[in-house]
Amino acid sequence: MLLQADQCTGARESLARREDDVREVSVRAFKPNDLFFADGDVLFRAGRTDFKFHVIKSGEIDIIDRSTGEPHRILTHKAGEFTGDLANLTGKINNVDAVVRGDTKVYEISELDLRRIISKRPDLSDLILGTFMLRAQSLSSSKHFTGLRVIGMRFSTDTFRICDFLSKNRFRYTYFDVVADQIKVAALLEAFHLKESDLPVVSFADDWILKKSVERRTS
Question: Is the distance from CB of 109 to CB of 118 less than 8 angstroms?
Fold first, then answer.
């Protein structure tokens, strides 16, 4: 169903009011940390599980995906909006970086207080959880998003175990096969200074790489 321009404006204004409600409830009920960040500061990086929920008081925050090895800006949160995705509530690793654009003030809210907001305010719970789910879907459908890289051989037992482990635990990943993705795999092996005998491997961007028996390490 298509919305007329005035309907779209009304929808955005309604969303802004509800995000203001998140900020008001957060400040009055949970006394969050009121923090200042300068341009370029990093609120959190991909691969962490201990990151916080932030409501932006002023300024902007860029959400960056580096999973391909090159940074891509997914979106920019502005004043009155909030950061975060489902990883804030599931304990899974975060998939993106949050980088401050310009001088920015935020309210920082712990996972425990975020859960309290969700449990005590069903209306805000719908907004927060709905937003988190939309962000997860948007990230997964992004042409740039790779998540974890698994490089291996199709009929390798070790490769199967790794992919099975990641799937069961709902880690987002992209599989690169030595035969089917020969050119891409050759480039990745050269970039990481690896040989085929090192496979299978799991990597994230250019940050880290795990070789052999990675299903035991990741568990």
Answer: no
Peptide bond into 200 cis (omega under 30): yes
17: tokens are: 């009011």
Euclidean distance between CA atoms 77 and 213, whole angstroms: 39
Question: What confidence tens digit (pLDDT) does each residue in 77-86 have?
Answer: 998 888 988 8
Contact 201, 192 (CB under 8 A): yes
Cα-flanking dihedrals φ and ψ of residue 135, to 5°? -65, -40
188 in Cβ contact with 148 (< 8 Å)? no
Q: Which domains does the chain have, with CATH numbers?
A: 7-141 (2.60.120.10), 148-218 (3.40.30.10)
* pTM of this structure: 0.72
